[in-house]
């Protein structure tokens, strides 16, 4: 399995919607870095006006989510599978605290043997998923006084679980194809991935669905989107989208804008302005539908 951390750093847009919520991230320790992108924490503070949703965009990852009220009462613990549309993660009007564990593509299956394909485009209660010991972890996280303490608790919990299970070795065909797809920024065609790996496109599709919950084509599309997102977030508000489209292998500017909008929820010009705090964020539901 390739070392993913240097190859792929999926990100969520730090746009204007996050003004209503504190947001923190921390990298995992070296033993967990093959499996985990980051630990993250957030506190929702409603009442700051409309357009304060926390935008979540496709990144090919899976997340364990823990939510509780300020007094420590647990709201829910969930597993969010890989998904293909943007949505607004803050639907409650209550003040809620969050802690999340974001797993690399294939990382959750390797570490805890939780099959990714069963959770694609789904948010399910963790207590319904065997092998997570979620109730114990949720209770311990709710008693922590800081994000740093939560991260340490989650690290120990996952290391103990991984030690008892022994993480799975990655299928070499999947690992090699994943490496090539990430190295190319998501641009390598499925036919070329298949030819390089010496397996059929059908076999490659089955492997990607098994390990990530997504086929290689939609997964590559998300990787390319994440690469573009990192690029445009560093650019200017008046970027030349025709040049961007050509640089990332799109047939034309219109194709690029349609693809970006379907994964971000807004055209790239509006997205760049939102990420710089020039405009309010727009809220979306899990189906990618604009709420207002």
Give the averaged pLDDT, no decimals.
83
- Number of alpha- plus pi-helical segments: 10
Strand proportion: 15-25%
SS-based class: alpha+beta
Q: How is the main sheet built?
A: 6 strands, antiparallel
Order of helices and strands: EEEEEEEHEHHHHHHHHH
| Spatial arrangement of strands, main beta sheet | 1-2-7-4-5-8
Radius of gyration: 19 Å
Question: Can you characterise this structure?
Answer:
With 292 residues, this protein is α+β, with helices and mostly antiparallel strands. The protein has a domain at 16-165. It has 10 helices and 8 strands. The strands form 2 sheets. A 6-stranded antiparallel β-sheet has the order 1-2-7-4-5-8, with helices on one face. A hairpin with a 5-residue loop joins strand 4 (62-68) and strand 5 (74-80). The radius of gyration is 19 Å and the shape is globular. Mean pLDDT is 83; it is low at 278-292. InterPro entries: AraC_XylS_family_regulators (IPR050204), DUF6597 (IPR046532), Homeodomain-like_sf (IPR009057), HTH_AraC (IPR018060). Residues 172-274 form the HTH araC/xylS-type domain. One of its GO terms (molecular function) is DNA-binding transcription factor activity. Keywords: DNA-binding, Transcription, Transcription regulation.
Question: What's a quick, concise take on this entry?
Answer:
By secondary structure, the protein is an alpha+beta fold.
Topology diagram in text:
Layout lengths: L20 E6 L9 E9 L10 E2 L5 E7 L5 E7 L6 E2 L7 E8 L3 H6 L10 E3 L8 H9 L4 H19 L6 H12 L6 H8 L3 H12 L3 H18 L7 H7 L5 H12 L3 H8 L17
Antiparallel strand pairs: 1-2, 2-7, 3-6, 4-5, 4-7, 5-8
Helix pairs in contact: 2-3, 4-5, 4-6, 8-9
């Amino acid at each position: 399995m390739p070392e993913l951390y240097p190859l792929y750093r999926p990100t969520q847009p730090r746009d204007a919607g996050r003004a209503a919520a504190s947001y923190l991230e921390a990298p995992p320790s070296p033993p967990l870095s093959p499996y985990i992108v980051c630990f993250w924490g957030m506190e929702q503070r409603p009442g700051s006006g409309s357009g304060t949703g926390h935008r979540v965009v496709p990144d090919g990852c899976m997340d364990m989510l823990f939510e509780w009220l300020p007094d420590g009462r647990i709201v829910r613990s969930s597993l969010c599978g890989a998904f293909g549309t943007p949505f607004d993660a803050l639907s409650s009007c209550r003040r809620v605290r969050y802690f999340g564990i974001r797993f690399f593509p294939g990382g959750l299956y390797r570490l805890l043997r939780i099959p990714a394909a069963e959770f694609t485009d789904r948010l399910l209660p963790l207590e319904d998923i065997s092998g997570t010991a979620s109730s114990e972890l949720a209770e311990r996280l709710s008693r922590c006084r800081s994000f740093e303490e939560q991260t340490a608790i989650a690290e120990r919990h996952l290391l103990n679980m991984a030690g008892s299970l022994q993480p799975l070795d990655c299928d070499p065909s999947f690992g090699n194809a994943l490496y090539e797809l990430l190295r190319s920024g998501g641009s390598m065609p499925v036919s070329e991935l298949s030819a390089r790996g010496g397996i059929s496109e059908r076999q490659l599709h089955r492997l990607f669905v098994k390990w990530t919950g997504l086929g290689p084509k939609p997964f590559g599309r998300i990787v390319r989107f994440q690469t573009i997102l990192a690029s445009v977030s560093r650019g200017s508000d008046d970027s030349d989208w025709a040049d961007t489209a050509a640089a990332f292998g799109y047939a034309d500017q219109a194709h690029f804008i349609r693809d970006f909008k379907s994964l971000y929820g807004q055209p790239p010009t509006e997205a760049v302005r939102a990420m710089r705090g020039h405009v309010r964020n727009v809220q979306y539901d899990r189906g990618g539908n604009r709420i207002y």
